[in-house]
Write a structure and sequence with these properties.
The complex is a heterodimer of chains A (236) and B (404). Chain A is of the alpha/beta class and 236 residues long. Chain A has one domain: Rossmann fold (3-Layer(aba) Sandwich), CATH 3.40.50. Chain A contains seven helices and ten strands. In chain A, the strands form two sheets. Chain A has a six-stranded mixed beta sheet, sandwiched between helices. In chain A, helix 4 runs antiparallel to helix 5 and helix 5 packs parallel to helix 6. The longest helix of chain A is centred in the C-terminal third of the chain and has 18 residues. The N and C termini of chain A lie far apart (38 Å). In chain A, 46% of the residues are buried. By secondary structure, chain B is α+β, with helices and mostly antiparallel strands. Chain B folds into two domains: 178 residues, no CATH class; 203 residues, no CATH class. Chain B has 13 helices and eleven strands. In chain B, strand 2 and strand 3 form a beta hairpin. In chain B, helix 2 runs antiparallel to helix 9, helix 9 runs antiparallel to helix 10 and helix 10 packs antiparallel against helix 11. Classes of the chains: A alpha/beta (236), B alpha+beta (404). At the A-B interface, helix 1 and helix 2 of A face helix 1, helix 9, helix 10 and helix 13 of B.
Chain lengths: 236, 404
């Protein structure tokens, strides 16, 4: 499937997270540790689910890995890129080139067509998509089962279709890293399975690293490995 | 380079009416200031043009402003009368090119019949009539461009300052009708609605001496025993030196002389003060509107924090979200300022049309540097202030927005 291949994308980097800790100030002045991770190494191309009870720090881990949140201590390195040694702008640029992100609630822009939504990141650095990128976006939409002519406004799509458009958006720049935060939690089982298939299919074809935060057993069963967190630490 | 236009398009489609309301609100505030400024200039230009024919006004001592308003702009008012002796002296002065009394009293269907000389009608021979000729006998009249009487039409005016009251209480002067023999070109002044008759005829109608021993004669010089008192005299001096000499010579206990322009300057100063006050009100309104718009933007920004954080997670830089938020506000303010210029211009045109319909004074409305500067300043200030919410979006860490 040429549309999914990322033969011309960036190579997937290995992940190394070390001494990672995150804490919040609580009302009253006490600090609550959200995450304390000694060391986590993940080879390029791995497909891992991160699970655990709510409040275990799953989502915080995902934000740290994407460089969206700065840890209190420790470092996150994807290949040669030490995320928090980079400046904010460089980190944004790195994220745009390396990370595809899928959210629980899709976060599409209502009022825009599926194609315009998929192409939105093309405006982050550049005047807009070129013809090749437009063709790629259209092919991605075909691939996820929401052809570009399907709707004029993403708000009119079903929830399953919206999440599949969000997946197409995440794959636009052929990211070597794919991160998903509870991607099936807002969907019925059939649509959830379809979304996980899309994510896994892309990662497998492209050799991309896939990390999915989920407490959905159907998702855990489909991933190569499962990392369990409890109270911010790795559980056995 | 970056292109936040798809984001702006989505924002517009999400809430077109709200955005339109904001643009309209800003436009109305700008229009208020633009209309006041353009209208004031139009009033100055139009009124100045109307006073062109009136080099020197002489009247009985009293209000200078009233003399100008009544003599030049035909505003109805009872002026104190100037003694005939002053007219006698003036008509003998070698520095006078021509002069004309302005004698009021009669109305025909709301049009004032004003007694003047033939020199006044033609501005000393400089102005040609649009049609017909100047009056040459007591029963003839020249009408302004807006008087609906055809050449050859005959009419008998009614006495009284108020035409409506004159219909009831007034009386037609028996046997004193006029025939229209000429029509003035349009001047854009209240005189377009006046009927110009020989001053001798107006005097005679009111039982005053008709100027000459020979009752059929028209025009100066008038014979001493037959000169009637008049409310105002228009004097065309031969030169600038004569103008100043005459003005000085006829400022005294039984007369006052003035250049309408000097009185107008006083009026313009008052007008300018009024404009400044209104402009201040307009600026205050604009400040309030822009502040309200910014507050609204901050309020929607709180709701959009998540969306902005999502953009960051998808790879948007801080610069991109800054630009997107800034452009959104700047475009609203800019569109409002542009629309406001147009609305203000239209408003001033409407006001001028209403004013022209009431007074006959044509007011040339145009947009000048002041109006463009006003709208530009607002657009600029709005764009500068738009940096505040944009900076808030720039600085907010994405994870905090995603957790909301």
């Amino acid at each position: 499937m040429p549309a999914m291949s990322r033969s011309d994308g960036l190579p997937a980097p290995d992940l190394l997270a070390e001494g990672l800790s995150l804490a919040y100030a609580e009302p009253g002045g006490a600090r609550r540790t959200v995450l304390a991770l000694e060391r986590w190494a993940l080879p390029a191309g791995a497909a891992v689910a991160v699970t655990g009870p709510s409040g275990a720090g799953k989502t915080s881990l995902l934000y740290l890995l994407a460089g969206l949140e700065r840890p209190a201590a420790g470092r996150v390195a994807w290949g040669g890129a030490d995320l928090f040694a980079l400046g904010e702008t460089a980190r944004d640029a790195w994220r745009r080139r390396h990370v595809g992100f899928v959210f629980q609630d899709f976060h599409l822009l209502p009022g825009l067509s599926p194609l315009a939504n998929v192409l939105l990141p093309a405006g982050f650095a550049g005047l807009g998509p070129d013809r090749a990128l437009k063709a790629r976006a259209a092919a991605l939409l075909e691939r996820v089962g929401v052809p570009p002519g399907r709707a004029r406004d993403v708000a009119t799509l079903s929830r399953g279709e919206q999440q599949r458009v969000a997946v197409a958006r995440a794959l636009l720049f052929r990211p070597p890293i794919l991160l998903a935060d509870e991607p099936t939690a807002s969907l019925d089982p059939a649509n959830g399975a379809a979304v996980v298939d899309l994510l896994r299919g892309y990662a497998a074809e492209a050799g991309a690293t896939l990390i999915v935060v989920s407490h959905d057993p159907a998702v855990l069963a489909r991933m190569g490995a499962v990392l369990r967190l409890a109270e911010g630490r790795l559980a056995a | 380079m970056m292109n936040p236009l798809p984001l702006l398009r989505a924002e517009w489609r999400r809430n077109p009416w709200g955005n339109l309301a904001i643009v309209l609100l800003i436009a109305l505030a700008v229009a208020l200031g633009v209309a006041v400024s353009a209208q004031e200039r139009a009033l100055r230009l139009g009124s100045g043009r109307a006073a062109d024919r009136f080099d020197l006004l002489v009247g009985a001592p009293g209000s200078q402003t009233q003399l100008v308003l009544t003599g030049v702009y035909l505003q109805p008012a009872a002026l104190p009368l100037l003694d005939g002796a002053v007219l006698q002296r003036l008509q003998a002065d070698p520095g006078v090119a021509w002069l004309s009394p302005i004698a009021f009293g009669d109305f025909h269907q709301g049009h004032p019949v004003v007694g003047v000389t033939a020199d006044f009608v033609t501005a000393g021979g400089r102005t040609a009539l649009a049609e017909g000729r100047v009056f040459a006998a007591h029963g003839e009249a020249v009408v302004g461009a807006d008087v609906p009487l055809a050449l050859g039409a005959e009419f008998a005016p009614l006495h009284g300052a108020n035409p409506a009251a004159a219909q009831i209480a007034g009386h037609a002067h028996g046997g004193h009708g006029y025939r229209v023999v000429g029509r003035l070109p349009r001047g854009g002044t209240p005189w377009d609605r006046a009927i110009l008759a020989p001053v001798e005829a107006v005097w005679e109608v009111h039982g005053l001496p008709a100027g000459h021993a020979d009752e059929a004669r028209l025009g100066p010089p008038w014979d001493a025993p037959f000169v009637a008192p008049v409310p105002a005299l228009v004097v065309k001096p031969k030169g600038v030196a004569d103008a100043y000499r005459l003005r000085a010579a006829y400022r005294g206990k039984d007369s006052m002389a003035l250049f309408p322009a000097e009185v107008m300057v006083e009026l313009y100063r008052t007008l300018g003060d009024a404009r400044d006050v209104l402009a201040l009100v307009a600026v205050g309104t604009q400040v309030l509107v822009v502040a309200a718009v910014l507050l609204a933007v901050f309020a929607t920004l709180a709701a959009r924090r998540r969306q902005i954080a999502v953009l960051r997670a998808l790879g948007a830089t801080r610069g991109y979200v800054f630009l997107a938020v800034w452009l959104q506000v700047a475009l609203l303010v800019g569109a409002g300022a542009g629309l406001g210029l147009l609305l203000g211009w239209g408003g001033a045109l409407g006001l001028s049309a209403a004013m022209a319909a009431r007074t006959g004074l044509a007011l040339p409305v145009g947009l000048g540097g002041a109006e463009f500067a006003m709208a530009g300043a607002l657009a600029l200030a709005g764009s500068a202030l738009a940096a505040l919410p944009a900076l808030a979006a720039f600085r907010r860490p994405p994870a905090a927005g995603l957790r909301q």
